[in-house]
UniProtKB/TrEMBL annotation:
Biased composition range(s): Basic residues: 181-191
Coiled coil: 19-46
Keywords associated with the record: Coiled coil
Chain residue ranges for the region called Disordered: 111-191
Organism domain of life: Bacteria
Protein name: Uncharacterized protein
Chain intervals with Acidic residues compositional bias: 128-143
């Protein structure tokens, strides 16, 4: 009789040597898988950082296109415009007025340029030192020498600032009669 052949499946139980070999294969494949996952994470985080950088740049450009401007910092020229009562900030490169602000009360005061003769420590036209100036000894003159003399009828003590309690009247003789807070009339009593 002749033997017939057929392919079938069955359970083969490992011998201790086969089991040890499969254990070694399992450990090797598991380590390879962990290494590939770590490599994938590193590459993913690297690409994620690149993608995030591009997304940030996209967001910034989208905002700038939408708003039609960007904020820049420059060293601008600042000039008073008394006609329009504004500060003008001028771009030194283009000469363009890039920003304006209203002048405050203090800003509205004109700057009076002094000539060389009016500046402290200056000499007169004949190059002689100003009277009272002792520059040889390194002593500068008293600043009061450069203040203008009082006009006739002007009080010796100039008026103090309002609100200090020491206000002078126009003649400089005493406390000025300044209007105080308005007094309220008492309400009439009902009978």
């Amino acid at each position: 009789m002749s033997d017939l052949r057929e392919t079938i499946t069955y359970r083969h139980y490992y011998t201790p040597e086969e089991h040890s070999e499969k254990s070694q294969q399992l450990a090797t494949v598991n380590i390879q898988k962990v290494e590939l996952e770590d490599e994938k994470k590193a590459i993913t985080s690297e690409y994620k950082a690149k993608i995030d950088a591009h997304q940030s740049q996209l967001n910034l450009l989208s905002r700038q296109v939408h708003d039609r401007f960007e904020t820049r910092t420059i060293l601008a020229v600042k000039r008073k415009n008394f006609t329009d009562r504004i500060w003008e900030y001028i771009n030194p490169d283009s000469g363009e007025i890039i920003k304006t602000e209203p002048l405050t009360g203090r800003d509205l005061q004109y700057d009076v340029p002094l000539s060389d003769e009016e500046l402290p420590g200056a000499t007169s036209q004949d190059d002689s030192p100003i009277e009272g100036e002792d520059l040889e000894n390194g002593v500068e003159p008293d600043a009061t020498e450069y203040l203008p003399a009082l006009l006739p009828g002007q009080p010796e003590d100039p008026p103090k600032l309002l609100g200090t309690g020491e206000e002078r009247d126009d003649a400089g003789t005493g406390t000025a009669d300044l209007p105080g807070p308005k007094k309220r009339r008492p309400k009439p009593k009902k009978p």
